[in-house]
Design goal:
Elements: E1 5-6, E2 9-10, H1 11-25, H2 30-49, H3 56-90, H4 93-96, H5 106-121, H6 124-138, H7 145-160, H8 167-174, H9 179-183, H10 185-207, H11 222-245, H12 255-267, H13 278-296, H14 308-317, H15 323-333, H16 338-347, H17 357-365, H18 372-378, H19 380-396
Antiparallel strand pairs: 1-2
Helix pairs in contact: 1-2, 2-13, 3-6, 3-11, 3-12, 3-13, 5-6, 5-7, 5-10, 6-7, 6-17, 7-10, 7-16, 7-17, 7-18, 8-15, 10-16, 10-19, 11-12, 13-17, 14-16, 16-19
Length: about 400
Amino acid sequence: MTPILILGIPLDFILFAATLVGVAIFHRHTLLIALAGLVTVVGYKLAFAGFKTGVGLSGLALHMQHEWVTLANLFLLLMGFALLSAHFEKSGIPDEMPALLPDDWKGPVVLLGLVFVLSSFLDNIAAALIGGMVARHVFRGRVHIGYLAAIVAASNAGGSGSVVGDTTTTMMWIAGVSPLSVLEAYVAAVIALALFAVPASIQQQKFSPIVKNAPKGLQIEWVRVGIVAAILIAALAANVTANMKFPALLDHAPVLGLTVWAVILITAPLRRPDWELMPATFKGTIFLLALVTAASLMPVEELPAASWQTALGLGFVSAGFDNIPLTALALKQGGYDWGFLAYAVGFGGSMMWFGSSAGVAITNMFPEGKSVVMWLRHGWHVGVAYFIAFFAMLLLVGWHPDLPR
């Protein structure tokens, strides 16, 4: 089969780019556009270009056999963590947060710091949703889009230096990269947090100030707190155990997602999950899976030569292109400083609302965030922080690449 080129560019990329442009412009119809884009790309691959794994339906089947674990994990985590966030909201803890946070713009800064820390040992989706739920309560339900972008950025930055904090860093760990090599990503991540947290918090404080005092007579529902803790602890334990003891299992089963749902179902008799959230969450989840699947079909066989310039560029690319295949290609190629790559592909997706699973999760909770124009306009500080922090890390740490593979 012969791929079609237009001005030297494979038609696959043009179709995928058109899908992203459609999502950016028609943000009220993102699911329909993403599904239409995926169907178009698959149809073109079937008729003309073929797949990396072969041609026709057999090639498609083999490709999906390779991708299904990643897609299943994303589906289970996004759906499951939406229920977790509802348990967390009903526990009463978000209503108590005004008593713990400063009363002025420093309160939103502290909340972003908490999201950052949570994401270092939890999945960044869970950290972002917990941060969004607290924000909904302490800002009277009115959260600025610039602050939504900052919550996503804090969750992605917090996971970038931890091998259990993000899918991409976990992939590096499985591939044999030392956790200490990934850890240096926190040099840039902490600088980035300091850069975007203040302007985002000032935006939020002007838009809807933080509640100064917690409502009186609140009671924490400790059963729901226990359910939230059980889900998060089980997810963390499953992630660490599978990576250390049974790494091959991660290629054959969505271990993390299944663990989260096992705890949700086991604890359901204690407190009923908020099943009513599932239809809206399902739509947002299918949107992300459509984009991730389309990205995995792109004919990216290799990346440019490994360098800090390439790593910097991959951060911008990951804002619109799934960072999982980018990371897989980088691991295959070698020659990167893994701390820089972890920061770039982990944090870079924060620059667009659909550039990371945490961004999609947050916009499921706050649909007004599903506008690329508004996200870029009000979340400008995220892109600026990414760029400045990358060069600060280059100056402070230096580029120390691994050997090519």
